[in-house]
Amino acid sequence: MNSDLFITPFNLGLYFILIYSVVRSTVWFMNLSRSDKLRLQRGFFGRPFMDSLREIFMESLLHRKIFKKNPLLGYMHMSLAFGWFLLIVFGTIEADFFGEKHLNPPSHAIFFRWFNPEHGAEGFARIYNVWMDLLLAFILSGLLLAVIKRFTPRMMGMKKTTKHTWTDRIALISLWLIFPSRLLAESFTCGAHGSGSFLTGNLGASLASFLPAAEIAPYFWWLYSLALGTFFFLLPVSRYFHIPVELLLIFMRNSGITTGDRHSSYTEVQTHACSSCGVCISVCQMSYAAGIHDIQSAYFIKGLRNDRDIAAITANCLMCGRCEEVCPVGIELGPMRLIERRQGEREDGKLRLAGKYAVTRIRSSIEKIPTQSFSYLAEEETEKADILFFAGCMTHLTPSVIVAMKKIMESAGVKYRFMDEQGGVCCGRPLMLAGRDREARELINHNSGIIWKSGAKILVTSCPICYKVFRESYYLEATVMHHSEFINLLIEEGSLRLGYLHRKVVYHDPCELGRGSGIYEEPRAVISYVAELQQASQERSMSLCCGGSLGNLTLSSGKRALIAADAARTLTMDSPDELITACPLCKKTFMQATKTKVSDIAELVAAALPKPLDKPVKRRTTRTTLNATGNG
Amino acid sequence: MKGTQKHVIIAGGGVAGMEAAGALAEMGYRVTLVEKGQDPGGHLLQWHALFPDSRPAEEVKSYLRKRIGNHNITVITGTAVEKIKHHPGGTVTVNLSGSKEEKADAVIVATGFDLFDARRKEEYGYGIYDNVITAPELETMFNGGRVTKADGSVPSRIGMIHCVGSRDEKVNNNHCSKVCCVTAVKQAIELRKMMPACEVFCFYMDMRMYGPYYEELYRESQEVHNVNFIRGKVSEASVNINNRLVIKVEDTLAGRPLKMELDIMVLMVGMEMAEAGTKLAVASGFRLGINRFLEAGDHHYGNNLSGVSGVFYAGTCTAPMNITDTISHARAAVAETVRYLDGR
Amino acid sequence: MKPEGKKRIWAEYQKEIPDDHFFYVRSCIRQTFFAGSEQYFLKILREDLGKDVFEDPRHTTCTGIGYHGDVVPFETIQTVVARHFALATEAGYRHIAISCVTSFGIYSEILETWKHFPETLERTREDLYKATGRTFEVPETISHTSDIIYKFRDEIARKAKYNLINVATGKPLKVVEHIGCHYSKMFPKYGIGGAEFPHVLVGMIESWGGDVIDYPERRHCCGFGFRQYLVQANRGYSLFASRKKFESMEPYSPDMIIANCPGCTMFMDRWQYTINEIDGITYGKDGQGIPVLTYEEVAGLVLGYDPWELGLQYHNVQSLPLLEKMGIRADPSRRFLAKDGTRLPEPANLING
Amino acid sequence: MNVKQANKFGFSINRSRLIDYDTSDRKVREYVTLREPSFKLCFACGGCTATCTAGQHTSFNLRRLNTYIRRGEIEPLREEVTRCMLCGKCLLVCPRGVNTRNVVAMAAEAIRKLERNEL
After folding, report:
1. How far apart are the first and last CA of chain D?
2. Domain end: A242, A269, A301, which one?
3. How close is the nearest chain D Cα to the Cα of A173, in Å?
4. Which ipTM value was assigned to this complex?
């Protein structure tokens, strides 16, 4: 047994992190709700397990998503993660295969060269050595990129990188030291013994030519072990904890666990699974358009992880969902922020700090506080109607949309009742976005009552904000439709005769309609039916936020204007005749931000309604061609 | 015109009079500028800085002084114009105080305004309470570089009372003096800059920020300088046992009465027709309007015309105006005068 | 405070107060609640100052309370007042001395109305003639009786036996003066010193040696306010107004309040008891209350009349500590003795009783 | 005592409607101004109140709420802040760009803190 003292830091670190991981995972598991526990158990023995393994390989090791977004960044992550993974696998095989005995302790594999300085002189071992050096070189190339990224993010195609805490910094330094120190340790040992392959061998030989390699080597082995040990010890309190936690997250997610609406083990796992990679920062309009660089999801999650006071960060977000769309780890950032907004009502930092290290987390206990009350709302009587039109608060500030909807429905012969013609009650979504779900419930109940009493089969709304909450949080018999869907339906069933407008238009997906509710196709179908639709550089799931979002509580009007101007500029890049949106709030916001005419989709359609003198015949040809191209 | 240089007398050596004198002299007319005070300059003499850009008043003063430095101008100070009479044939005689008489080809009346005598609003206690001052008195303090209470201590809360003597039937003034709102905002900003620990409140009925950059200044006062605004006319002031002023006002936006202690109360005194101008008008038979200022021949296109041949009006003797408008009005009066003299 | 500023205003608001020959009209409230005050006004004027004051037993209320309580129309009250003028005319008097501030306000209002709308004067002449067969002359002057005491304040000071000075400390007494709203707030020119800084009581207090307290709510209404008090549901406002005044004057620790209005004297006195009952607060030093006196009572004290003859015992806040400060020796046991020596029932709940 | 005596007289002393700026509590104002500086810009045009969704159903008045915050009138605020639906219409009509929604949110937060003596 050729054991030396220097392996102690590594061993301590390794056993610490193994034990810690087991304990932490167990605690998280115990704290899961009953149904989530069942989900996880079932998932472990079924297909989700295989899915998870595949995902771990593709995402956690190969970093496919980041690769797609930014190949250089992807390579960096891949080389470090996948490279290290391979190094461990092949190192273990090496120790097992070439070592004195089988089933070595991990230290034996990690410090194989120290224990077997003469190894790999010839034969298969020699080829194996080349492979091991290749792996090390692969990792070191990634490390080099990481160092470059840290100091000059722009070179890596990143607009911003995350800022680090001091534990992060020490962990980072130890991480960075691991592979260079391994390289030097191995090189010196190889140099002293004339072994090693193209990297360690050559470097070792050249170093040994002017240095006492055998004497120096132990120091670097010490450094190597210390770096590893330090890294393992700091792992739970640094951002690198995300590496093991991400694996757990993948299992949990594939088992069907979702964020829900309160803090849980799952939100905590998500919190720790964030690698602070900073992709969310790059796509955040608040960052690149409004110059606000400290509220992005990476900072939000970090604040959550470190139990900072993040009330200001939590509130200052458009809730547009772009970051969630690109998050390589798949953290549900929107719901996470909403939960924190609800928590923000409590603002008892002390409790949270205590909770952090307590075995059981008691975060979900929401203090009873005096809040909104809408008891003043009187019960309303309603007339029966099959189709109910709910314009929404914001639409009342864009009366042209209401007028257009009235024209369209009249033209299509739709019998409907205008639910909030005299002004209605807010749908509740803005309250939910402010973290006040319980109060929103009061409004939801009020509106639900009216909708149920009307006996409506279809509820049409002009506001995507209302649309989302109607669909997700209302219990209704009626089918909820955004007016773009409804108009599409009218066109499809042939009850709406429309002309063709010779205009080029670009369509802006409102956040709550697109990313929020997955409605991308219907508005496009409608627009293509009446006008020429241009593509936007940022659309569908990566559509921009107009800046007017009610999701943000604190953003100033000036900053909003900056975001709006930037988004409008991007959308009107190809000089469309008109910028079409499907949200009154987007419309109002863009109207102030661009000289291009901004219209709601309903207005566009209303403009295409036949004038009293128009003959329907003219329209036929256009219609058939459009149908032939698959529209309609 | 060469040879026999035509002579214009200007009654009043304030901003309007000085500008008119300068403009006429530049064109070669002989000008006599009659000022009742010891120095020409009018009310501007008391001012420290001007709205809306806080430009030092001295700059405008020195511009005007330079303006009347022309050799064609004779300045007579300590003398009032008492009567103006136009004679058939075109000569205008002007009676000056001290039983002097001057002859001229034309006369420009620029007798300006008097500041409202704040003692007439008895309920504010001006002249009775120690720390009730007027806007020009505050300017004097600014000139001295220090704003203090009567006992020399540093104020912690100052109230600017708008519309003192303006828009107030009780003192027989229904007109708006136009410049007080923006003056209050300007002074409030200066106070806040000078004493960041001192709260400043403006008590207003309406904010009439009519001029260029005035509204912007108002916004800046709120946004940057934290000046507070309370909508309501202060109804009375008294002093409490600590000799602090106590004011009563309705916070009309809350619909409730409000009481507040102040260290200094600044009365934004308005403009009234000058007493000397009124005497002159009565003696000369000039028409006075319902606001008691001189009534011009035509409100829209003849507001420098007096209705008396050879006599023209310039500046605030016709209505409250800021300096910019006064200078423009004086130049317009010069244009009218020249047109008259050339056409004769 | 700049005294010269006030003096300037006082100089501006001077009114003509006749020297002699007054036609006296009484106050409904005062002759009931502070009968001694009116009694001593006549006594001081007639005996101490040797003036001619005529009183006609046929004169009635001016109906001012009914007028301000919205039950008496203006035409009616003009006719009633015209009848008083007729009585004065018949008796040959041209100067009216009015005991009540409400009446004084009514008289001022009517005279001003007649001045600006002469047809109303003619109409009133007609109304009065039709109703009573009387005719009248518009009086030359109207004076509130406080105006008259004000005019002779220095003469009274010369005859003073006591001054408004704390004999124990030698310092002037701190006196709150309260002017009835209708004295000069409606027509500042009818009041001595105008509406904002009335001089009528200030002059007396200063002449007799006291110090006037100028406190923030000096101008505030006592709370009577006619409908505020007359309608029971509104009395909370009345109380609130009084309390506001007391709280404002409290820091100055006043020795007494002098009022020139019947309602004010009564409410500022009686409400001290009510506030004590409702809120348990007693104003004044050591919970002694703040005595509220009429100017005649104070003039009487200064001239050395017996406090119990003046009727000080009929105030809710008793004046014993005040009398002690002024150095007036008064036997408290004689307070509720009738003229014939029989003991009158003693009121309960007196402050300082 | 108060109620009993009031019954005895048939009336009690009215409460003051006066805004006493010298004794009012301006902590809420400071809290809101610090966290939402645009609050200072309100010039009381009333646009927010006119468009207010909640205001169609109850006496909620954002313009007045602003005034109450400025004057430190906490009592009427307490109830007022609970009536807002946070729908954000006011945000779109405000001519001075006041972040009205956050003003209400911050005022509500300040009041909660005040109640817990955290302000």
Report:
1. 33
2. A242
3. 38
4. 0.83
